[in-house]
Design the sequence.
């Protein structure tokens, strides 16, 4: 290789540093042997190899970029090709003109209708009707306590009825159930005076349900010597509950002229609503 060819080769290699050499230019560069190159020529050969390596790297990059572009295009909905389905109008017209064959409907029988009713009844979920809470029925019948059933400390039976107290004492009965509010109390009794003073009595009722004491009949006089119904209104009414009922006689006494003995006879106690 003469000096002229070397200068041309050098100018080609130097120009490849600014502009990448195309793939077609590489075959036109003559292959050089190590014997023909000096130190300067070795430098030129090194630069030429670098240019060839850059060209190969650039080709790989281009292929990789093209693959990325193809992959991204495949995932874009708008870039996909639409399939066009061509319908045959003649076949559609033929289907429209042809009427489907009528299939015979099975006749309804009593068995099928009964079965349908049974299935429908099974499908219906019966909602249980809530049982109403029964309202307690209150018996407003008046309660009558006979004096003969009452316990006593000093009383004794009276031949005319009831029990007589000739001395200060009481008649008592426990566990009297009263289901209604007490609005009235009636005492059927009689008395005998002494020295023009009639017997003095009262009625005490202790409600065990509410643990409270009531006096529906405060101390008062019995002013008849025959049985009489003495009535008193209770205001406010006493509450229902279980009662301990106590009838008391307070002012026992006698007189000499004429000879009299004060006493009281209780026949019954009536409790009204």
Sequence:
């Amino acid at each position: 290789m003469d000096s002229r060819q070397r200068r041309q080769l050098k100018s080609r290699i130097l120009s490849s540093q600014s502009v990448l050499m195309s793939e077609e230019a590489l075959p036109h560069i003559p292959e050089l042997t190590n014997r023909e190159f000096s130190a300067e020529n070795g430098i030129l050969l090194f630069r030429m190899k670098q240019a060839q390596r850059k060209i190969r790297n650039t080709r790989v990059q281009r292929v990789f970029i093209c693959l990325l572009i193809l992959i991204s295009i495949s995932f874009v909905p708008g870039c996909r090709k639409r399939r066009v389905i061509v319908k045959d109008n003649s076949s559609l017209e033929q289907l429209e003109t042809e009427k489907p064959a009528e299939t015979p409907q099975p006749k309804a029988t009593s068995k099928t209708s009964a079965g349908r009713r049974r299935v429908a009844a099974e499908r219906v979920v019966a909602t249980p009707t809530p049982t109403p809470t029964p309202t307690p029925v209150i018996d407003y019948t008046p309660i009558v306590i006979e004096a003969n059933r009452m316990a006593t400390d000093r009383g004794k039976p009276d031949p005319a009825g009831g029990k007589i107290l000739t001395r200060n004492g009481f008649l008592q009965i426990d566990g009297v159930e009263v289901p209604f509010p007490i609005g009235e109390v009636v005492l059927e009794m009689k008395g005998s005076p002494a020295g023009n003073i009639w017997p003095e009595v009262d009625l005490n009722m202790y409600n065990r349900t509410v643990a409270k004491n009531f006096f529906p009949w405060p101390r008062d006089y019995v002013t008849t010597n025959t049985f009489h119904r003495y009535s008193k209104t209770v205001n406010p009414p006493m509450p229902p509950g279980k009662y301990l009922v106590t009838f008391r006689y307070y002012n026992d006494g006698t007189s000499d002229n004429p000879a009299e003995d004060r006493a009281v006879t209780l026949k019954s106690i009536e409790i009204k609503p």
